[in-house]
Amino acid sequence: MSASNAVRAVYPAADERIYVTQPYLPPLREFIPYLEKIWNSKTLTNGGPFHQQLEKALCDYLGVEHIALFANGTLALVTALQALRVTGEVITTPYTFVATAHSLLWNGIKPVFVDIDPDTLNLDPSKIEAAITPQTTAIMPVHCYGRPCNVEAIQKIADNYNLKVIYDAAHAFGVQRDGSSVLRWGDLAVLSFHATKVFNTFEGGAIVCPDARTKQRIDHLKNFGFVDEVTVVAPGINGKMSEVNAAFGMLQLQHIDRALERRKEIDRLYRTLLADVKGVRCLNPEEDSTNRSYFPILVEPDYPISRDALYQHLRDENIHARRYFYPLVSDFPMYRGLPSANASNLPNAKAAASKVLCLPIYPDLADDDVHRIVNCIDL
Ligand code: T4K
């Protein structure tokens, strides 16, 4: 949790401050009819009509077979591991939000950190094999910033060693790869619909799965393990998405294409304006396979001041860029004692965590704001 979460969070209007992100919110009046339906039906949760509609609508929109909605992405990650009965050790990246590794600890699984590729900042497939032991049962990569992992290489290793693959796809809503959804890769893929994500349901998440049987197991697990009124088949959790969240998701889907398009425009503008700023490197090349969920820059040694000094300089100008993902997950107290958390094992992740700064990007960000941000960076 960030320092801003430690106190009660209040996010004033964007004309006072520019945040790393702001949730996309359709006009409030458009949401009222959805609320009226919920009030009339008195169905608030437990797989009601909006929950069912959103699962179907998301399958259609994303081009995947089955989706199980969750109250948030973290519960979805925890449940995905249980659904596949993952145990022992799981190979994962330290360059992510803490929830990725926490989901392993919640299942009594030992995370094994493997370094990232310095260009993509995703798990480096060429380093995975060396970390496999007889206890390894799965790989949990992250499509960091919505940029697809090297899914073919990861799948090849998983097939060779009989490992499961669960993608933390929290950043990867709507991301395509070679014309189809990147969420189709792996045994399961987990989305987050948190307020800070490209597609938000206030809080929310989902597991994407390839077959009806697995979806059924996940549906049991997210509802205490209930199969029917008198049958409980697993020590499941309460991970269900409520009707209000699902209804909001249905409304968001009507706006998502425009919201993604606006992110593309902002991404393009940043790249143009930053092209001549010495010492600043834009991470993702402009390509259609990302959803522009983040706009990370790398502050290189030839930039006039350090990354942290730039972060502070922007804050002084009321621009709240964020150092996602610093500190590395492997540096937090519950992980740093693990042999794989040693800095010498993770040089690329260490370097990235010391250089990265995520600049504001969200649909309501004005071009003028992007100019203002880049003016502050161009010292
Ligand atoms: N895996 C990955 C790879 C993830 O990135 C995440 C979540 C997860 C798993 C877990 O999914 P969930 O369980 O969250 O569904 C934020 C989010 O809380 C977190 O969801 C997200 N990743 C992570 C990368 O970022 P913080 O601590 O940086 O959030 P916060 O409150 O500082 O918000 C950042 C900015 O967003 C604020 O400065 C202003 C704006 N904001 C935020 C909220 C919550 C708003 O304008 N309105 C809001 O309601 O963690």
TrEMBL record:
<dbReference type="GO" id="GO:0030170">
    <property type="term" value="F:pyridoxal phosphate binding"/>
</dbReference>
<dbReference type="InterPro" id="IPR015421">
    <property type="entry name" value="PyrdxlP-dep_Trfase_major"/>
</dbReference>
<dbReference type="GO" id="GO:0008483">
    <property type="term" value="F:transaminase activity"/>
</dbReference>
<feature type="modified residue" description="N6-(pyridoxal phosphate)lysine">
    <location>
        <position position="197"/>
    </location>
</feature>
<dbReference type="InterPro" id="IPR000653">
    <property type="entry name" value="DegT/StrS_aminotransferase"/>
</dbReference>
<feature type="active site" description="Proton acceptor">
    <location>
        <position position="197"/>
    </location>
</feature>
<keyword id="KW-0808">Transferase</keyword>
<keyword id="KW-0663">Pyridoxal phosphate</keyword>
<dbReference type="Pfam" id="PF01041">
    <property type="entry name" value="DegT_DnrJ_EryC1"/>
</dbReference>
<dbReference type="InterPro" id="IPR015424">
    <property type="entry name" value="PyrdxlP-dep_Trfase"/>
</dbReference>
<protein>
    <submittedName>
        <fullName>Aminotransferase</fullName>
    </submittedName>
</protein>
<comment type="similarity">
    <text>Belongs to the DegT/DnrJ/EryC1 family.</text>
</comment>
<keyword id="KW-0032">Aminotransferase</keyword>
<dbReference type="GO" id="GO:0000271">
    <property type="term" value="P:polysaccharide biosynthetic process"/>
</dbReference>
